Structure prediction request, 694 residues.
Amino acid sequence: MKRGVLKNPTFAFETWGTLNSDRSNCILIFTGLSPSAHAASSNIDPSAGWWEDMVGPNKPIDTRRYFVICMNSLGSCFGSTGPSSIDPDTGKLYRLTFPVLTVEDIADTAISVLEHYAVQHLHTVVGASMGGMTALAFAINHPGKVSRLVSISSAARSLPYSIALRSLQREIIRKDPLWDNGRYLLADHGPVTGMRLARKLGMISYRSSEEWSERFGRERALGFTDEDSPFGIDFEVESYLETHANKFIGSFDANCYLYLSRAMDLFDAADHGGSLSSCFASLSLESALVIGVSTDMLFPISQQQELADALAQHVDEVIFKPLPSMQGHDSFLVDMDRFRPAIAEYF
Amino acid sequence: MKRGVLKNPTFAFETWGTLNSDRSNCILIFTGLSPSAHAASSNIDPSAGWWEDMVGPNKPIDTRRYFVICMNSLGSCFGSTGPSSIDPDTGKLYRLTFPVLTVEDIADTAISVLEHYAVQHLHTVVGASMGGMTALAFAINHPGKVSRLVSISSAARSLPYSIALRSLQREIIRKDPLWDNGRYLLADHGPVTGMRLARKLGMISYRSSEEWSERFGRERALGFTDEDSPFGIDFEVESYLETHANKFIGSFDANCYLYLSRAMDLFDAADHGGSLSSCFASLSLESALVIGVSTDMLFPISQQQELADALAQHVDEVIFKPLPSMQGHDSFLVDMDRFRPAIAEYF
Prediction:
């Protein structure tokens, strides 16, 4: 792998609420693979954010009490520098000349934002999915800067099953002839077929069998069936995947997706200390909340238990909260009736 | 969907053992999606079969006691008529002119084979995965012809999660430009990239997260890593998928795969009677054995329980045997230490 240095990278972020006088009320949010920094609506951007029910006045992450920062991940395509940004040295897009990206790199981007606001110490760092890995990497690499950690549907390392799923998604994209080794025209959205198929695989791994049995059963899709094709869309679940995958097209850059997906595979907190337990020895957290979902196949509940157990060896208060949500890995975005109270109680 | 009629189809099968004088010792085996009729070695073909440890002299399906028939599925490419066979009406390959295929069609092919051997009544019909669906369809549609059913890692219907996985596999194949709407040259193996990617997805759904965590952990692949590519094979699990997917190429026809995969989606035993329970009302089984595996994500253990419960309403002796195998759906092919005694005990 080629490590490298980015010249003058841009770090996009949004904020809500007001920093208090002793700068002690700052909550930092890292995101999953695909969201932007727009976690919630604001005066500047009143459109609904990806975690609208969680962040805002009187919401579980209460912007009347806290000054909240949400980072757009380095390597993404929503403002922060990534493979679809221009390399100042060449005047051309980075594409595959973008250096190998790690979750730790994403975590470090928050440092300059905290410096900008003269925040010495975070109240809490929060992350779900890849964002949970990033929050953990931040707490490990900057132990004096944070008192509390909230890890949601995340893990201390990627296991081979999730690596296999993501590796296959990446290969599906790379095998689309329109990917062209990363040289596609951005305006054409590049490997749209590969992205659509990879998105479908993502949706399969983000949800759960139980949810879909309840939701779709064996219902047939109306208005889709093609009498002339033996392989057209027939079942409701197939039309659901098709509709949602088509929405994703054009909204995310393929090369950015590849880099962020790979960064998750590469993450192993134990790389910072030989074992999960020893890598947490330097943490100076007061408390941690670890939430997971029993139907999550990408970040299985056993990984949340493993993370909570390892944290508990070095952190006084570790709350492990397994939730019985039906919606698999995506539950933190949709099962708000369970996630809102779980987060609100912690804060 | 276009139903149709095949003119003079061929049904490939193999047999082992000897039919007894009253023709009461015949066991019929239906296969999963990809195997041939060569379940075990024989004098005619001494190569190892796909269920070599299960079928043979002194094996759980004991060919000293039983006359065993294994059918190659209609629609497959190992002897039975399928999309890669020649349509006698046109002299050309069927390809996508092959009519829509159902599990019930596959089940019915056994009738003429039984007539050939003058077997009026089967001792047992056995099937695993798609073969379990086929065995169930046979027992439902030909209730007077069979006394016992063994269903292994199968189900009475396809659920949306497994439909989604198979639908995506089919779309990956169909989106390969070399598929060419099914018109590829057989000698060139057609959509090899699509088939390789679909096979990888298959392997992910056939095994389990637990198995791969134990087996691969985060081991790196030696001899694969490409320093020049940020997305090459890096982890052991990726090289495992690559090696096994490459082996599959050329061994199975893409159009046959599409038809058989779709047949599984279409299967719902309840289509034969309004509900699972009522469709079993006409069964005349003495007993049934339902085996499933707790780590199976494609045919989850809850579906085995559902099948066993519905059968128990109309069959005197139903044995439900959940096994704690680690290898997911594929366990019946690899976890022989658990499956051999389970099958042997029944016979």
